[in-house]
Structures
1.
Amino acid sequence: MEKRVVFGHKTLPYLLLLPQLIITVVFFFLPAGQAMWQSMRLEDPFGLSSQFVGLDNFMDLFSQQAYLDSFRVTAVFSILVAGIGLGVSLVLAVMADRVIRGSGLYKTLLIWPYAVAPAVVGVLWLFLFSPSVGILAVALRKSGVDWNPRLDGNQAMVLVIVAAVWKQVSYNFLFFLAGLQSIPRSLIEAAAIDGASPARRFWTIVFPLLSPTTFFLLVVNIIYAFFDTFAVIDTTTQGGPGTATSILVYKVYSDGFRGLDLGSSAAQSVVLMFIVVALTVVQFRYVDRKVQY
């Protein structure tokens, strides 16, 4: 017999959901509505007057080459951060899942970076790659690489990608390790008895069983690359040199708080919101079909 919990009070479920609903409305729906309303207005920098302009802010955005370039920068940045982050984390999780001496210390050291604030991560890697005193920059210069992310846009992109990946590796590692430890050892042992090589066992048994975890982390990492890397970019390159590392979320801040173009900044935030929603829908509709639950 299946046992089900029945609420005798009709309003009790709604009362239990009320705190979460209030948080969702206050911190998501209201700011989103305010951004959409502000995106259709032209405001002076001091907020003393505003004028309704409809979709003019959006039309002006897509006529700017700098804004269109930020799409390319964001696409490259998000794909590399998500791809490299997931790949490195999976390799580390597979290594940690093996029975080796000192595995507890190894796992603890890999988890630590997640506790570091994004701004601190940016400062840390900026110091390591500083052209004048950075340890890694000096090593690169000795090996023949003319390293200077302040002048080279590609090197600046490498810097922010390395910092962003390092920050997210611990989060991905935890989920991959938990997924690996939940796979029945009997399946892997049976494949080994049948003569399957370690690589074949991984790609035919382990990785397919990790597909739910991988799909979840793919969605999380895309959102992380779009939003949570703002502090990393702000403390390392500030979107430069030029606009080489100015992703969409940083351009929203740059135009709104530095350029004081509040209408354009709000329009950019609305566009960014729809892009992330669209990417999430596509991932759940198409990528999710290949996930084996």
Note: The radius of gyration is 23 Å.
2.
Amino acid sequence: MKQTTTTGDQAPTGGMSAKTRRGALIAAIFLMATSAIGPGFITQTATFTTKLGSAFAFAILASILIDFVVQLNIWRIVTLTKMRASDIANAAIPGTGYVLAILVIVGGLFFNIGNIGGAGLGLNALLGLDAKLGGSISALIAIGIFLSHRAGVAIDRLIVVAGIAMIILTVYVAFVSQPPVGDALYQTFLPSTIDFATITTIVGGTVGGYITYSGAHRLLDKGTVGIENLGAVNRAALSGIAVTGVMRYVLFLAILGVVASGVVIDVSGKGANPAAQAFQAAAGDVGLRIFGAVLWFAAITSVIGAAYTSVSFVTVFKPDISERGRNIATVIFIAVSLFFYVIITTPPAQMLVFVGGLNGLILPIGLSIFIYAAWARSDLMGGYRYPRWLLILGALTCALTWYMGYKSIGPIFALLTAA
């Protein structure tokens, strides 16, 4: 079976220095983290915390546990096979790689429309710019990065800096909002309400669709593959999950503090921006500016992550595409996303919630293929004996995501027609 050739910023695994490998792992961690904590998740968190209160903590916990199983399996399998997700799928079940690629690319396109909308909302809160103008400017910045001759280095540096800034700013707002931490911790494990549509949407916004493969494909492009790198890759996956888990919970607490104080947050109006309202209620105009910065950092890195990862699936249709060719395809992908963002009339916040749900419906399809590959096709991994406990957890998680998708498909698509 021919394996996919990785792109030009790959370093040969055998000659990789400790510093280079560390840089590759950090880049993968933050690409996964910033993709998982994008504008969709921020908006979803504000919307569902307003709706469910402390009980939303259970959905956060569920997303972290599902994230743990999904990412450990995906990163491990991609690392061991040295192949992209679509090529693994084709090798395991012929033809499924093309189906997976189409689903991820289409889901990534919808997600990127929402990401550009999130960037517009961010600049609106930060600088007062019209949301459409702010989204357009942000998309052009992302296009400029991919047109650069040092696109790989620029991407890695931007996502690390933006990720750190997001964490610091959100921790500050969580401290100021003074949330009911005790009740939140209690309902993390014993929720008063369980809403499957909410869990599916938040899972889709944090690990569904393209997000599942973002960090793994970045490792592949950097050449951090093979059984000799497996230990480091596992540690990186766990670190990424820890970073995203802490960030998700801190963001939830920041908004919960506002909701618990009795502030009414509008989540249904045409111009509603629930997360902005929460940050402003917590810290005044300074909080609104902080929200703008957090949302813009989250959005611009997610625009880059969604475009980069979605286009990485194009290689299943054109295996010999060059790095420059992929960058051009990525620019086109962002431009198409921008075009649809400009003409679509669905409010940005509403679109961000919907695309999370859509990607949550895509997740079980790809995960099913990967679990089958791990269970039945050890030859793709050089005969590596896959840990049975991880396989069992993967199969159970897969069944759970199918069930949640079945229960949630109606409510998720209803979001597009909600007032």
Note: Residues 274-312 form the longest helix (39 residues).
3.
Amino acid sequence: MKWLIRGGAVAAWLAVSALLVVGTANLEPGPGERPADAFGFGVVALACLALAAAWRIPVAAAGTEAFALLLYLGFGYPDGPVLFAGLVPLFALGTLRPRRLAYAVAGGMAVIVVGANLATGGAGVLDLVFVGWAGVAVFAADALRGRRERAAAAAQAERDRVLGERLRIAQDLHDSVGHAMAVINVQSGMAEHVIDDHPEVAKEALGVVRTVSGTILDELNAMVRLLRDDSAPLRPAPEVADLPALVASANQAGLAVTLDLDAPGIGQPVGGAVYRIVQESLTNAAKHGASDAAVTVRADENGLRLDVINEVRGPGPDVPGAGIRGMGERARATGGTLTAGREDGRFRVSARWP
């Protein structure tokens, strides 16, 4: 394919060059004009060479074309097809280089053509035609550049959207799997501890493990289908209204959680961020051995506030982990702020949305 493209470009250049040479050879010089001679054909050949380099080094090609036009017209040769050889470098220049440079070079070429013909007394309608076509070449290149820039911006926006969606899926997977594994860890540990003395309690704990693992497997399967097939049905994103079910799941896992919820009308994306922050906070509480937690979600005229407070056991990490960083990113991405740390002997996660 590349050889075909290059072969077509070479054929086009040869055809244009032949037209320039043949057209120059058939010009009839007017009064006071110099007939085409060896020097004139040499200048035309220089213009043809500049055409060949127009798309590789457009600035040098445009400068060479301007110099060739200055020589051709300055020595009094009759106006001819060589005048329009400069349009190709102008178009290439406007497509590949800054707009201001292309407009400046086009203006310079127009000045050279008109000025040289005025100096030799040969100015005419063809000069105005050249000026008009030089402007058309630059404007057309500018329009093509603008179209390419818009297409590139749209493609970049789509790539950013896809990347953002992948990051969101990764965060959701981290939160969901982390929560499920924390519940499974607590329940399986309790089942192992009481299976000899209280088999009915162990059976109940294993039932919770089965339910939670089935739920997370369904969620993983849904996400995998979504990644493989864009037409796969989407599961609704969790929101504030799903918090009671989340708290019930945490209570089933053995973490005594209370919920104070008074936030009507909170939709996506803030509602999804609230849900995931609560989910990650309860996961961390269970993972670090807490026995209880209190969740407060309230909305008033000052905005929305979320607090998750749980028991602290052990010294805990000095540096926030990936979970806390992820919660902060979710809050900031939806216009809120988040803080997390020890307070009065307990661990508090606080998020605010104005």
Note: The mean pLDDT is 75.
4.
Amino acid sequence: MSTDVAADTAVIKALKKMRLPQTQRNREFWLLLFACLLSGGALALVQLGALGAIDPMILFIAGALAVLVFALHIVLRIVASDADPFVVPIATLLTGLGIAMIYRIDIAKSLTGWGAYSSKQLAWTAISIALAIALVIALRNYRVLFRYTYIFGLAGIILLLLPFVPGLRVTDANADVWVSLGGFISFQPGELAKLCLAIFFAGYLVRTRESLTSVGTRFLGITWPRARELGPVIVVWLISLGIIVFQRDLGTGVLIFGMFIAMLYVATGKTSWVVIGLALVAVGVFLATQILSYVRGRFTNWLYAFDPSVVDPQGAGFQLQQGIFGLAHGGLIGTGLGLGRPQVTPLAHSDYIIPSLGEELGLVGIFAILSLYMVFISRGIRIGMAGQDDFGKLLATGLSFTIALQVFIMVGGVTRLIPLTGLTTPFLAAGGSSLVANWLIVALLLRISDGVRRQPRVVIG
């Protein structure tokens, strides 16, 4: 009798343990199914609008990617059952919409086979999801990363320097950010560098938070840090300026410095660091516009985009003007997938994919996409704030802010809110290195969220 009772108790405990994770994963399953159906529907509408018929081949390939995404879902059920259920479906839907728009532009330009951007994007999507699965399986405890704080910092610096290595550098690029492996594969090591630096910043700030939060001088209602605590901020600022000057990459420089300031604010809770960071950004922008012609040119295009006496409408101002005209053409509800002319704008598949989507999906579609980003970022910040260890909190917040800042910079650039920089819109734009980095961010957030939910809660009272 006692043996039967013990067996029944063990079964009940196992069922209770499985109930909550299954609820989370079941929610993720239905959201994933919805995301895959929307992505497949977008591809079908692109074909109907641009070709008047449906080619099943591209749908079969997209279906293979859906199998990979559901493989990630199954892996999460087994090794990370408490992970956040919204992160993967949102990333899947954004990636699918990006593939649909890139495919639409390929149709307009009659690009087929491996020469089509959509073919490469499909291949990179498969690689990205596979790497995300591998990271989720391999990284059982995200706190292990804290041990290798300075190794990740060194790796980030090395990755940023790779484009200057003879034999790896792509010489015909506008910015020194690309490396080529044997002439077959080109990628931007800076995309992986931002992940390494995010881990380094999180570990470094955990170790030095007490000195950075030390009492300083209070002025204008804000407690300002002492001069000796400014060292880390100045170093990261100089590194960012070095990226802008030597690599001619304004976007990455701003992104890395902005990520550090955001994580510094979360670590210390001192508004003065944000004010100091914004002041250093203003000084850096002023120096860059005075010294670097390409930065000055971007500010000129931004301020005088529709002044033909300053900016040539058939030259430097053509891309920005056509992007804005495309958004205006889309109006409120858009022309419909496959029925616009997004290919008129240069780099419509990468830098200007937001105007491409805006033309065919309209303002409503752009707002829906931005809402997806908002939910993704809010989930990432919630993952960080729910944790009890400072490293996970800083890492999740830093990674989420990285996505947020990229979206703001790109959407603000193509809508002429701010000067345009050389970044990619996360998950949407064509680019293998960016897609890999973004899906690795997804994997890290999943691991952090699972670890946070498994942490024992301290009950007071």
Note: The mean pLDDT is 84.
